[in-house]
Write the structure tokens for this entry.
Amino acid sequence: MTTTAYDEYVRSHWSGRAAAYDRSLAALCAHPAPSLLDAVDVGAGTRVLDAGTGSGTVAALASARGAVVVAVDAEPSMVELTRRRVPSAEEVRLAALPRLPLTSGSFDAAVANFVINHVGDPRAAVDELRRVVWPAGRIAVTIWPDPPPEAQSLWGRVFDAAGVDRPTAPTVDVDRDFPRTPDGLGGLLDAAGLADVRCETITWAHRTDPEAWWSGPANGISKPGLVLVAQPPDVLARIRAVYDEVTASYRDADGLLALPTAALLASATVPLAPPG
């Protein structure tokens, strides 16, 4: 696997956490999955790559549509979970962008759901997706925008109110990064030589149990997880009390949270090879 310092950080951060992710943030990441597959016209017989499959949400949905699915992920626990969840997949294997052990031009479509925001060389990752898709095939990706949506940014409010410092985490090298905006994501696909580039913002209210929203970071998932797992019990209890206060205004009558959030979805076509 090709890595940068950021890739190593992300992979160590997610190591062994498939079950914790599946119980918490997987439902949030699942929301754009139907639109992601629609953007690349996945249907019966489509040969599709799900790059960075996570707990297999997109792979399972594509398989239910009758697609021929190959799914890859950099985290072994995610691979094992997806193998169990999507037994109909043609293959689920350990592999990571931007170097995939797959034949060039072997897919009708490739998707990456909240993966480009977790790689150290986003352009190289998009280039690799282009490589494995045949000419006239489609690519679609999702990322979280910046500034972060309310659902994600509320953790900053919690930590500030609790008086907790947030550790500095590694980031993508400046010369490899891109603006996490519609123009920025669209520009990334355009720079990779893709055609018919489109980018839209999807907004929704993520409904979740307060315990599920807490449990992901409490088990080390996402950037807030870096903060929570580093705290002694008394500080963790203080953060939890503030969390309950901050999230109270988002609770519906049924006790579930309704958290406003958003994602960017970009899609494009692999151009036909120029005449020889």
Remarks:
- The chain has a mean pLDDT of 94.
- The longest helix spans residues 233-247.
